[in-house]
Write a structure and sequence with these properties.
- The protein is built from 6 helices and 13 strands.
- It has one domain.
- Helices cover 18% and strands 30% of the residues.
- Helix 4 (96-105) links the parallel strand 3 and strand 4.
- By secondary structure, it is of the alpha+beta class.
């Protein structure tokens, strides 16, 4: 059993120095590879929404009281062999180091990981609507972090999933709502909380650009975990096969420091 105590803001600095280069290390005796999922994300948002940005991206964010998009978006950590992880305490408080990372790059993706049998089935299961970007928790709730799981010991979830979970930032969702005519800058001074977004955009222009895709497609028996802060990131589903919406993934809510 192991606790990810070295995953924190200081650890993240090693990766963001060269955000396009995989970072290799060990947690205990288990090797892992970490990488930034979308390097230079802020620049990509500026470029993609250049026609929706009037003066500057900074001003657009200020107008809706939203933080700037992350400089880099998402970090993925893939272990070479299965590892039991302890990400939060008995009070559902997310590990401080993980909170630090989420504050700087948004989603954390863990691959080849699993929870102990005592908490493996905590929370509930859900299947998100396609491209319906939304938040799970309001700013008034203490448990503002969402943690999503693919349980490698579950007869259903041990298989790769046919649907992805997709993530974007408040500012990107707002600018897309402007682009689609759902929001106007005069009336809508907030980030979206539940809107159908990006569904008509060419996939090759959004995935890996302004949207992070968590595919849940590691081989059979490989566990996967994803974490976000609902204050900065929205999520939805993308059905890679339109005829299959995929099984429900695990969901639990956590507080943070």
């Amino acid at each position: 059993m192991t606790t990810p105590i070295h995953f924190n803001a200081t650890w993240l600095e090693q990766i963001t120095k060269n955000p396009a280069t995989p970072f290799k290390s060990k947690l205990g005796s288990i090797p892992y590879t970490a990488n930034i999922v979308i390097p230079h994300y802020r620049d990509k948002v500026r470029s993609y929404f250049k026609d929706q940005i009037d003066s500057s991206l900074e001003q657009e964010c200020k107008n809706i009281n939203s933080p700037m998009p992350f400089e880099h978006f998402g970090v993925s950590i893939s272990f070479e062999s299965p590892i039991e992880v302890h990400l939060y305490d008995e009070n559902s408080m997310l590990n401080k180091g993980l909170s630090e990372i989420i504050a700087k790059v948004g989603p954390i993706i863990l691959k080849n990981t699993y929870f102990s049998s005592a908490i493996r089935d905590d929370g509930h299961r859900n299947r998100f609507p396609q491209f319906q970007f939304h938040v799970d928790r309001s700013p008034m709730q203490d448990t503002r972090y969402s943690l999503y799981t693919r349980n490698p010991f579950c007869p259903e979830q041990k298989h790769p999933r046919t649907a992805s979970t997709i993530f974007t930032t408040n500012s990107a969702a707002y600018l897309q709502a402007i682009k689609q005519g759902l929001f106007t800058k005069d009336k809508d001074k907030r980030a979206p909380t539940s809107n159908l977004l990006f569904e008509k955009e060419p996939l090759e222009t959004i995935l890996g650009n302004v949207i992070l895709e968590q595919r849940w497609d590691e081989p059979e028996g490989v566990g996967e975990i994803a974490m976000i802060d609902n204050a900065t990131v929205l999520h939805a589903s993308f059905y890679r096969d339109a005829a299959q919406s995929g099984y429900r993934i695990g969901v639990r809510y956590l507080a943070g420091l």
